[in-house]
Amino acid sequence: MKLVEEVFPEELKALVDELLAVKMKSGEKEKVARIPQINLFIESKLNEATVFPVNEEVQKDYEKLGKLFLEIVQAGVAGGV
User: Fold this and answer.
1) Do the beta carbons of residue 3 and residue 77 sit within 8 Å?
2) Which of 12, 17, 49, 58 can pair with 8 through a Cys bridge, CB separation 3.0 to 4.6 Å?
3) pLDDT band at 63 (very low <50, low <70, confident <90, very high)
4) Which of 24, 37, 29, 32 is nearest to 74 (CA)?
């Protein structure tokens, strides 16, 4: 997947592939174990790219962060990234 190849560091690519495989098999509302390394990476990138402060409640809400991650990945796939 081009988005993963371009954005994620080498040491996280296998973890992203595993997460995507689990999410594809599970229902959208089904919770899966979070992967701290991926969350930390996404949080760091959001903090770098955000032009407005991220609400503290959103930072702590990993369910919302997971949904945002899926939306970003799906948008990349739909856009041919």
Assistant:
1) yes
2) 12
3) confident
4) 24
